[in-house]
Amino acid sequence: MKYSPEGLQAFVEAAEQGSFSAAARKLNKSQSTVSSAIANLEADLGVELFVRTGRYPKLTEAGLKVLGFAKQILDVAGRLEELSIRLSDNVEPKLTVGLTDVYSWYHDRHFLHDFASTYPEVELEWVDAEGEDVIGLVLSGRAHVGLLASQQSYPTDLVFRRVPLTTRMGIYVGHSHELAKKKYIHQHDLHSARQIYLNTERRGGQRPGGRVWSATDYIMVLEMAEEGFGWAELPLELVQQYGDGRLVELNVEGYPRIINLDVLWSRTNPPGPAGIWLINRFMSNH
Fold it and tell me: How far does CA 244 lie from the centroid of its chain?
């Protein structure tokens, strides 16, 4: 019996998102396409996966059991696709990577030299992006590989792997800022001061409360904090590399905050051998 990848992806996404419409938005497809894919999967399996009588579909007992297997099948299919690419050795002429500024080249100073010597004819393009914007670049095909701070969930047509690196995030202000004079910072101190936060194109207008400024990349956030315009959450490595001693790390409860990094790529349009090489390099961290 054959199950289409589209049907499995639609089923998993609908189960995780809680509705067919939300799954459609995640997959960039129409709701009717998602509904049809799930209905076809139910016909192939001979079981009902969702109870559709309420406002939102709920997994049946069979659906709960199928969900785990569906995730495993999609994961194995992605791994098989990676293997086939490595075996075919059909090297892509250009590789575009959506990359977060949270990642520091300090961890692996030589890998660009290794890439250049391994794939001398491949055009390599780096695109600065953060969070949801990295996901959008890969989903749209603008980027072949993405590296970003770990997210709570990803669209099912993306494959992601945890990178064996962590980054420390701290709260920083410029030396001239009034908060720089305090030994310990309470939350109400932060709420009363302007926050400079990282804003992405795909945030949907979400913003923290209070007085805020924002930028779409960490470098601009860092520069505004240096000038004393407000406080900002920034990666330690970025501050060490570009802060030039002009920032003060504040003593705030819950900080420094440790975050993980993920590398991701499209399940349906995976990168070629050069992209797989880069993914493996990120994952091996050497």
Answer: 28
Topology of the domain covering 91-164+260-284 = D-Maltodextrin-Binding Protein; domain 2 (3.40.190)
| Three-state DSSP class for residue 91 | coil
Judge contact between 228 and 173, C-beta under 8 A: yes
The number of angstroms, rounded, from the C-alpha of 151 to the middle of its chain's C-alpha atoms is 5
Residue with tokens 């202000």: 173
Whole-angstrom CA distances from 106 to 111, 167, 192, 234, 241 are: 10, 12, 35, 16, 9
Most confident of 47-51, 101-105, 228-232, 240-244: 228-232
> Per the confidence metrics, is the pTM higher than 0.85?
no
Task: Report the distance separating Cα 234 and Cα 224, nearest Å.
Answer: 12
What is the distance between the alpha carbons of residues 256 and 48, in angstroms, rounded to a whole number? 47
